[in-house]
Write a structure and sequence with these properties.
6 copies of one chain form a homohexamer. Chain A has about 325 residues and is of the alpha/beta class. The first copy, chain A, is about 35% helix and about 25% strand. The first copy, chain A, has a single domain (about 1-325), classed as 3-Layer(aba) Sandwich (UDP-N-acetylmuramoyl-L-alanine:D-glutamate ligase). Strand 3 of chain C pairs antiparallel with strand 3 of chain E, so a sheet runs across the interface.
Chain lengths: ~325, ~325, ~325, ~325, ~325, ~325
């Protein structure tokens, strides 16, 4: 058994091409294709892993382009379905300094959200795979997407495929937090590795934690999550939003009761989208490599930080590029 | 009473920015906002008329940008509504030579298609207006859109506002041609000026006409349409598709039993979208000016031809620019 | 009586398209249309106000494009004249870090600067308006422009239209400071609201003020200005130029003897042009809303800061976007 | 046994981004990756076939980007090697009207040209494949490339893999035509399907053929080639260069003594590079589909013509898009 | 004595960057620097000649960029002056098919037009030069420019420097044709080589010539011009404007009573600006090479035709590129 | 004797056009031409000096474009040779924050590296020149380049032309540091002015220096270098790499035993390439002006800092622009 599977929605991402221009006055959009789970697939592929992405996309040039954008990095897509009416779309105005980034979603009615029961044969899809990654976004897309996510997780669990879950909560996609909680509980019951942060736990489970700073609060949160959810492996991000252009970052890893904090990075933000996905991909890569917890959380956090310096949702960096950061060379010295 | 009203959907138009590139491999899209009725509004405004466009658009930057794109040309939008979920979107690959242009529509669920009964107060909207233009696209968007279009036409008729109707048939938007016919009949019963071509009459009404060439067939079609629909004013286009880059064009006008053919234009095609709308706008402008039939159809056809040389859906040309063409100066002599 | 009028010159703004490229080596310019008073008109429109801009522009596509750029945001232009020889033009190299921005003006002989007496009918233009905004740039363009600005101010005063004046001093446009002073005195005598800063007062009136910091100096300046000019409402900006990329900003408001300082903002500069106009527009918006002084100066200063993060001269932000900043959320958190 | 293998060099293609600009004054280049054999691989993949491309590329981002450009279309690259010093590069000025296109090659010392004996294990690479495609360019790159091409052909022949060969002669890459002839003879002795045209036969073998037009000359050439080379399946192109913007095209197919001519296409040229490759790919696709000779040559020629309308070296069209052309619909009617 | 001098104005040329877009809706302009005489200087330099361009430009980055644009091609500028207020500017909408190109000039008040008497030391400038080229545009810019042009011509004549003059008439720059005639007569009295066409002779001198076609009319015109002006060497262009995209071209040369017509070229037009300058430069180059009349007019006309295929005002082609056209290879065959 | 000569390689520089995009996913490259010695030539020319650049470039449009890029700034190139196979090329991914910039070199086999003995006639080239600048890069290109560099230095020394040498060490171009040392020793023996930094001395000569900070270490290094190499004039840079986006800079000058440190600059980095060349050019300019040591090192360091704010390898700033920085105005105040 080897290789990763991720399952979810990949969308058309449109951003004003001219830096710091607004949607209102833009007459050119830069085109990308991205989604939480496909971002992780791309990053894992760029790190040298075998990865497959499973989704459904319309049978038109936009659906084809979305798949092509993944295949170019070596992600395979042979179990992705074609059909349905449209590709989910989102528009980003990338913020700067005190001006926040703004996302306009237009994803209702997407091909994946409109799947029917039985379209994916999970037993076949998961055969001979080692890892399945899921996120909290897919089950929010539609009732069938929620059921499909749960089914994928259960099938994986039954087949001995390790399940990772990013407890990603998009408020606008759920009727209320309760509905999310019910479904997340179900997925988490089949989950081996959990990605989250205190904000998401607060949003979905209304947990809040004392502690003099975010690190302490996060550690408490992870201990609580371990107890409540019965999960032995977790990686949480901590992000201090200084402005749309400056973030301070770290990560905390938890494995079988041990808890370790990574170095902290101060980064100037080029594009903050997909950074959480870069973190998760970095951690999954570390798991695949069977690295110790310290190295795992350090690598994931270095990937997290590195992604902030790249335009677009996907972290295309190599293992070596991240290792340089992980080992503390933040000098920006030219590599010739 | 003065000025024009057009009612319909304006969409986000996305086209690969790099000429002759395909959607599949494009990473930049040129952005426009267009629709049959809004195109006519823009052209009428550029020709010097007072025009208002009525629609519904989502309350987000894309909806705002669509309105801004109209206002810049002087089209007013004060009765347009804001709300709903999304802006209809379409993607164009502009063809060349033997390769046809291709459109991917993603317009289901747009704000206008999802209107409820009573959102538009037609009596108020149409007060003091002289002309209302409608097309066959809007009633195809949803049941309520069909009812709204009929209501707008009836209200206009009752108020003495002249109604023009472009018998525009988008096959993919209708369950079948019968459903279109029923609604079109209803609209046509309130119509004063009809725009169409033999292809649309064939598609919707299954009419076909003998005749040794398209001109003869079209003239027969117009006589038939006048009899059947009881319409005294009509303008039809004739287009010979030589390739995606070369078209031969003319127009035929009908007024109270008189029928006149315009000059024929051979044009190299820059962007063929919105050319029919340029024709209709040209004819409506001529009506507003109370020009004789010959001048009216000549002006409309010159506008039709001129639009083929402009990128984008909208004909931004002035009355003077079209008159030069109408008067036969096709030399392309530099204007200094 | 309602709505704003601004009067002045709108110019063609050309900037090397490729970031940090110089005019010398640039082969593409980004195109905009801007001017102190039209910037304020756009910002007021984006904040939801009725606004009209009055100017004169050549009867060519550039004049048309300048008006279109305003109309797209909802600014009306029906009293703007067409004629004259050219549109004023300026070229900007946007600076970075220690390299300052550089402007090359080419505005002599513009349509507005060459107006003759009597072209604008101020009584008609100002009827039913509530606010007229003027700046120190327009009277510097030509003798007739100075007379026209004074006439506009006087007519407004007579008609009960409130007059705001931005004491904007462009050294290169005046023979000497004395000539500016004479005309400014004349305008100020009809002014209800004054926008300025200590630098402009120093430049024009040779005032300087003791005080351990810029805030104290500015407050003294405002008190002096109130006494000398007899103006009850003022808003001044304070800007610390740390570099072309980093500025520290605040604003001070004065109303009937009360003086209040806003929060201070540290911003990374995307485009520093038009920021003073964003401040004035924010303050005028607050006056229109009849907000208290504290909220007024806070809103104006938040608008001032926000504009630094947008490319181009105009502040297209909404009331809500500025309120978020005003209320202290500078985290740059993504808005989804 | 199924699927295609192509073997050769893929290069970095750089073209001035601004249409009709020259290399001398261009400050932006559009980037592509292309080569005769990789172009065929892409086209075969877009037509729905399993295809693999075998090459050697440097272990840097340019080598990676070249592979990514193939993978995006579904071409697999698992037997391609990484190493060597550089990627071959070429620069194109695309011509227009009477101005010819111009290519500046910079391909000496490329990774593929510098391979050593034994780097490719052809027995392994060709196992379970049905078709191997080679061209006359690869053996021209270096002595080892010539030996490798011959070895690939021989190994394929031994293993029962069908060999196709495009008798592509790049004068500047050979010391003289004799050296090419010796190697081509060797490859042709293992070839099942030959692609060529009369010009290449003239250049390499000094054959010339009487006949009142190019069609007759080409048919004679094919009969001669069949006799001399003992090849039963051939497809030749005929191109009339009217200008850099207008070409007239047809194709002639030969199978077991039968010879059939395709329709003729008049096309406006967008990008003439890679059109011969589109032809060969179309013919190979037809062979894979086991279509009769008439349909095969018609499809190949339609693909040949269609490619002229696309920017870039690769023909990304689908089977359906080419069939429309093949069936004679050259109207350029918009596909909605 | 060797090398060419040209004297005149170089302007900033701005064109919407996106092909077929209008000034009204363009937010990016492509930047060039061009003028009749500087275009000729560039073309002569690209053909391998020593050339100097003399002008006056403002002391700002735009003036510097204009000079840099010439120096890059090897044109020297050491006698060009710096000072004055502005660089002349023009905006082009490039036409297509039946839509003509449109130029908006904004050149009044340019640095060259505002020169004072005595700024140029023609004796020094012309020392050791062989050829001076002038056009009818420069004397139209201002009274002093007219005097300066005449002075340059007279000084050259006195010093034995050959004078060529392009009888270029820009209607909008002159009060009336009489004023042009008076000055042209003066310049022509010092002219050795005259460039013109029948349209210009008609416009300025009200000459018209019978003849069944443009060639015959032009030959009559040249004979008349030779008699009236006493000029022994002339080269005239003939252009048939089929559309903005298609032109038919030829040239006629006259030397000491011999008159020879060139081949005719049918070209698709990429950019028609500067084509007359390319013709004149080609002819001057031929004079420099001391080619016979037939070769001279053939080369000039081939250069004339070639320029139509290049974007921008300047003909950057080499002698060899033009010779290929002159020798009749219009096939557009790729040069590898 | 006057003016500067620099000798070396100029390369094609390709950078992803879209900011922060990677080579892997870029489909547009910005094009420049640069090299250590040509960068210095351009900067010296922009500062108002007479400069010539000597190199060898292929006889194709890329070689021509490289020369044109220098000529536009006024650098002369009359002794540069044309011929050879290719222009050296490099690709840059410009880093940001913690992500370092990355350079992919593809320069082997360039025209200059492949020169033969005797192609350059140094006695002729250097006649009447005052300064010759060389760097450590050229001798690394090939054995003949090393000999040529030494020959140029020796010839200059013999002719009384002052020689400056930038001890620039590109590890990847040398077999080992010993080989570099041998050649550098040879060049230094003819050198009058040395540019370097402690890193280069460490890399080539294995020198390391105690000292509590970089300033102290650098001063020790300079004293040692003066002693060992017998050089009386030196200028060294000090750079603290805080990140790819933030650098802290200073410079140290040494003249006849006096040693002076410049101000320190904190800069946000736009493009870090060519900054050392800007420093050397600034210092050479100061030497040309015969400024005192303090002013010389201050000017050089201000130029060094200023270049960090410009995109591209070359410092196009004027003397006045650098003086403003040198005099301490880092406020970024707009220059109008």
């Amino acid at each position: 058994m080897k290789g990763f599977i991720t399952f979810g929605e990949i969308m058309l991402r449109l951003t004003p091409s001219y830096k710091n221009e607004r949607i209102l006055s833009s007459n050119q959009f830069s085109v990308g294709y991205a989604g939480a789970e496909s971002n992780i697939a791309v990053s894992l592929a760029c790190l040298g892993n075998e990865v497959e992405f499973v989704t459904k996309l319309p049978n038109n040039p936009l659906g084809e382009a979305a798949l092509a954008s993944l295949r170019q990095y070596g992600v395979t897509t042979k179990n992705s379905l074609r059909g349905g009416n449209r590709i989910g779309t989102y528009f980003i105005e990338i913020g700067s300094s005190i001006r926040p980034s703004r996302v306009v979603y237009d994803r209702a009615g997407s091909a994946l959200s409109a799947i029917a029961s039985g379209e994916f044969d999970w037993t076949k899809i998961l055969s001979n795979k080692k890892w399945l990654h899921l996120s909290g976004i897919t089950p929010a897309l539609s009732k069938q997407c929620a059921e499909e996510t749960i089914l994928a997780a259960k099938t994986a669990q039954d087949m001995g495929v390790k399940v990772s879950f990013d407890l990603n909560f998009r408020r606008s996609l759920w009727p209320n937090r309760k509905s999310a909680r019910a479904i997340f509980d179900n997925i988490i019951s089949s989950t081996d590795i959990l990605f989250a942060n205190t904000g998401a736990l607060k949003d979905v489970y209304d947990y809040s934690f004392p502690g003099k700073n975010k690190e302490d609060q996060t550690m408490l949160a992870m201990e609580k999550a371990s107890t409540v959810f019965g999960i032995a492996e977790m990686a949480f991000t901590i992000r201090e939003h200084q402005s749309a252009s400056q973030n301070k970052l770290c990560g905390i890893g938890y494995r079988n009761g041990n808890i370790i904090r990574s170095n902290t990075y101060q980064v100037e933000v080029v594009d903050r989208f997909g950074t959480g996905d870069a973190f998760a991909a970095g951690y999954l890569h570390a798991l695949g490599r069977e690295w110790p917890l310290k190295k795992s959380i350090d690598f994931a956090t270095a990937a997290f930080a590195y992604k902030h310096t790249l335009i677009g949702d996907v972290n295309t960096s190599s293992e070596q590029e991240i290792e340089v950061i992980m080992e503390g060379d933040l000098s920006g010295h030219v590599i010739r």
